[in-house]
Here is the input.
Amino acid sequence: MDAIKTVPNLYEKYIKGEGVKIEQLDIYFGSKKMTNRNEDANLEAMGITHTPENFVVDRNFVVAALARFVRENHANDEFYTPMYRTKCMYVDYENKRVLVRNIETEEEFYVPYDLLVGSDGVRSTVREAFVKRHSNFSCDYTDIFQEFKPVHVQIPKGVSSSAMVLLPDIFPYCQGICLPETGGLVNIGIGTTRNHFEKLPEELKSDDYKVVAEYVKANFKPFELHDYDDFAKQWVNQRWNQTGMVHCNFYHSLETSAVIMGDAAHATSPSIGMGMNTALRDAHIFSEILKETENDFTKALPAFSKAR
Here is the structure.
């Protein structure tokens, strides 16, 4: 949020309406609920007078909002060239250019660069250039051993539209989280560690939505859902998702004139969009460093690695 708000009008005109501001945290132990609000007197008693602003928004909505902002405010800039529906295939760092493929026509072409910013996810193509160029570059990709499924449903009765809800031990060997969305919906994510996957109730692994619906209706204790069949159909019509994390020993390369950010660089929690959060913070800090160094890449790039 702090990073977004450093750009005039970005939050107020483009981001704010896409998500939900979190005002309280609820934890359900079975059907028993515990609530902690941001302005809770208990926080004041502990000497906490200010809590960070929490805002939940789908990362795809953030990307779309950023694209609208750039298009509406920088479309006529000399160095702005949008390249939607394309994919970075390879970094030719010796000639400071990237190979790009149009995913619709499959046409491939090179795009030159002065500085390459790789915020291209956990399987970063830009990071691959670091691996090829630097023998001392260390990158660990680890599986966090999670199997999970998210389901989007109408907000249940009794659930606050501005609350983050934790659902510990929601089913045997399962943990859950419920996040508010716009449009009167919530996103319920339920998962397990991979070493416990085989111990899950067979009903949750069934391909029959009726079996899943019956199990959830009988065993989901925190609150009543509006439509168990809808929940179950979404559940069975998607695969189990897995997540990974990355840790690198530095985030810049003067030789390739590149930096990596977000999921491409950091060992972050995949929960509730931490990769997006770190990418935004990375961009903010790098922008400040560029100002301080007057766009001197030889100073700015090492300073970015040190800062992050």
Q: What stands out?
A: The radius of gyration is 22 Å.
